[in-house]
Amino acid sequence: MVSLAVDLEGRATVTAARRRPGTVARRRHGTRALAFIAVAAALFVLVGYPMAWLALKSLQSPSGAGLTVQNFVTVFTTLRYLTPVRNSLAVATAVGFIDLAIAVPMAWAVVRTDMPAKALVRGCVIGAFVTPGFLGAIAWALLAGPNAGWLNKLWMFVTGAGSGLFNIYSLPGIVFVISLYTFPFVFLLTTTALELMSSEMEDAAAILGASRWRTMRMVTIPLVLPALLAGFIIAFLEAIADLGAPLVLAVPARVQVITTQLFQFYEFPSQVEVAAAYSLPLLLITGALLYLQRRLLARKGYSTFSGKGGAQRVIRLGHWRYVPLAWCLAVATLSLFLPSLTLLSAATAKGWARGWGWENFTLGNFRFILVEHPAAPSAITHSFVFSAAAAFAAIWLAFLTAYIVNRRLVRGGWVLGYAAMMPFVIPGIVLAMGFLAAYTRHPLALYGTAWILILAYTSRFLPLAYTTSDSALKSIDADLEDAARIAGAGRFATLREVTLPLIKRGILGGWLLVMIAAMRELSTAIFLFSANTKVMSTVLIDFSEAGEFERLSALGIIMLALTLALTLVGHRVVGRRFIACAE
Amino acid sequence: MPWLRLPLLLLFCLGLIVSPSGLRAAASSDEAAKLAAAKKEGKVVWYVSPFDVDTAEQVGKAFEVKYPGIVVDVVRMTAGMMYQRVMQEIQAGVIADDVFSSAEEGHHLTLKDKKLIRSYVPVEADKVAPSFQHIDADNTYQVTCVGRVVLMRNTQKVPPGDAPTSWKDLLDPKWKDKIAIGHPAFSGYVATWVLAATHLYGWDYFEKMAGQNPLVGRAIDDAITEVAAGERLVAVVRDATTLKSKNRGNPIDIVYPQDGSVFIAAPSAILTEAPHPHAAELLMDFFMSEEYSQVLARNGFSPLRPEVALPEGLRPLSEGPLIRPEAAELKLEIPNLIEKFRATFGV
Fold it and tell me: How far is it, in rounded angstroms, from Cα A388 to Cα A457?
C-alpha cells in the first residue's frame, strides 16, 4: 500500500514498469467478448459514428443530392476561407513560443531552486489552468479594450495620452490571452520532467570540469528537451482548437481564425457541408502534431526516466531568489489575479465603465443571475449535473477500456485504447459538428435532449479519463490480482475486491478532473445546447453577445468559484498530482 | 293559446343564438375551452429576438400573471441564431418552440412558404394601431414589436452639434475608429439596416464603412454598451434599448438620422407543430392586449395599442422620415447581403 500511495502522489505515469500480460489462463471467452463488444459499441457511439457522419457531410452537396467534392474545392479556392488558416497557424505558433518563455523559467524555479512560496506558485498555475479561457478573454476585454479598458484609462490618465496603450481586439491580443491560459500545460510537463531528472548527471558533468553554463547546455537542456517540445505541441494544439477567446476577441477585431470561421458556417445562412470540409485541414494538423508528440515522448533513450526521481540538488539563488518569484507572481497576476478582480468588480457594478465607488456598487447582478434570469439558475444546475454524469460515464468506460487493454483480456484489445484516445486529436468544435450531423436525425435523434450534451462531454474528455485510469491501473502490480485469482477468486471478484479498492483514489481523481473540464466546456456546448439544456458557458456567451458585461461577470464569478471548489476537493482526495494527470 | 307556445319558444331560442350576446357567449365558451386546454399544457416556449432579455422576461411574467398556471419559457437569442436553431430543430424532428418572434420579417415569410408556421387570428387583433394590423394577408404572423434603427452618441464625448445626423455622416473621416455596429448575420435589426442603407447609397456605403474601422459586435445592443462605456463614440442602434440604457443613467442619447430611421416591424407566429398549441394561441392573444403594450412602453418600446402612451423621450413613429423595407425584399436580399458583409468586413 505504501508504494501505491507514493505512486499516486507522484510518479504514477512514468514509473510504470513494463507489465507482464495477464498471466492467468484465458477462460470464459464469452464474458470477455461481451465486455469487448459493449466497450467497442460505446466507443463507436461516442467517436466513430459522429465522425463518420461529418466525413459524409463533407462530401454531400448542399441540396442533399449525391456526393461531390465541390465543398473541398470551395474551401481551398476561396481566399476568405484560407486567411483564417494562416491566422490560426500564426496564433498557435506564437502561443507555443510564448508559453515556453513563460512556463520554463517558472518550472525550473519551482523544481530546482530555493525560490520561496513554491506552493503558492503551484496553486496559481492550477488556478490559471482551471480558469476558462473565454472568461479570461472577457476580463481582458474589460481591462484592455482600446478606449474604455481600465488599464488603458489608467495609462491615459497617467501619461495624458489621447489613446490607449493596448488593443486586446487584435491578433496579438488573442495570442496574449490564449497564452495566459495554456502555459500551465507546458509548466506541468516541464516540472514533471525536471522532477524526474536527478542532479547526479549534472554533478557528473561538473566533476568532469564543465562550467555551470556548459552543464546546462550539454546536460540539462538535452534532458528536458523532449518535454519542452511536447509542451510546445500541446500549447499549439490548445491554441489552434480554442473557440472561446477568439469568439470574444476576434470578431470585434474583424479577424477570423479556423474555429470562428467554422462557427460562422453555422450562422445564418448556414453552410454545413462546407464547414465539414473545412474541418479537415484542422484535423490533419492536430493529428500530425499529436503523432509527433507521441513519438517524442516515446523515445525512451533517456535513462533519467527511470522513475527513481533521484537526488535533487537545490540550486541556492541567495538574494536572487526573489527574481523568479517576481516573474511567477507577475504571470499569476496577469492570468489570475487581475482578471478575477476585474470580473468581481464588474459583477458588483451597475455599469462597469463608470468606475469604482458606492454609488456604482450593487449586488443586483448576482440576484438577477441566481433568481430572476430565465435561464441562468437552471444553467448552473445543468452544468453541474451534465458534467457529473459525463464524468461518471467517461471514467467507467475509460477504466473498462484500460483494464481490457492493460490485462490483455482480448486479442487486439489495444484498438480500443486507440479509439478511446481518438477525441484528443479532434478539436471540441469539430466533435460538436460531428454530433450535430449524427444525432439530429434518426435513428438517434438526441438533439434537444440532455443526452447529446452528456455524450459529447463524455467523448470529448474520454482521453483525459483514459490517461488517468491507465496510469492508475499501471500503478498496481498485476501480481496482486494474480494472487487473488490463484486463491480462487473469479475475474469479477478480483476486480471488485482487489483492483478497484487499490485504485479508487485515482478513479475519483479522474472523475473530478473530467467534471471540472466539462463544467467550463464551451465549444461543444455552444453547438449542442437547446432551449431546455442551456449550460453556464452558453449563457455567458449570450450575455457577451448582448454586451451585458456586469451580469456576465456575476455568472463568471459563480462559475470560477464552483470550478475552484471542485479543484480543492480534488486536491484533498488525490493530492498534489491531481491536475498533473491532465497531461 | 298553447299551440303557439312551442313555435314562440323556438323563435325565442333562435333569437338568442343569432343575437350578438349569444354569439359572445358561444365565443367565450370557446375561449374557456382554449384556456383549459392551455392550462393542461402548462407552458409555452417562446423564442424571441426583438427584445432584450429584461423586456422579454417581463412579458413572460405579465403573461403568467394574466394566465396563472401557464409558464412562459423565454428563450432570447439574436434573430440569425434563432432562425438557424429553429430550422435545425425542425430538421431533427425535435421541435421545442411554440411561438417564434424574429426581428426579421423575412424569416417569417420563409417559414410561411414552407408551411412551418400556421395562421391564427389573435383575439383583439383588431385593437392594435391600424398600421400594425394584417401585415400578412393570410394571418400566419402578426406584428408584435415595432422599433427603429437609429444613431446614438456618447453625450460626454460628443456634443449635440457634433453628432452625425445621417447614415451618410458616419463616413466622415472624423468618425474613423469611433463607430460601433452589430452584425447582420446575428441581428435582424442590423440586417434590415444593411438592406435599407444599401438601397439608399449602394454597397459602396459599406465598402467605405469598412474603411472607417468600426467595432463589429454581434447583437445590435452590443453597440450600446460600447458607446456607454466610451469604447466607441457613435453607433448604429435601436431606439428602445438605447432609451432604456439612457434612463438607467448612462451618458448616451438617440440621434434620429435625417435620411430616415429604419422601421422594424417584428412579427410573431405559432409553429405548425408547436408542442403547446393552445398556450401558444394565448400568448399570441396576449401580444395584442393592453397589458402587453404597457410592458413595452415601460421598457422603452413603442406600444402597439393606441390607448397606451408612448414612453417618455421616444419620438412618435409618425414624426420624421422612416424607411420601411418590404418583407419580400428582406427574405430575398438579406442572405446575400450577409455574405457581402462578411466579405467586406472580414467577419
Answer: 10
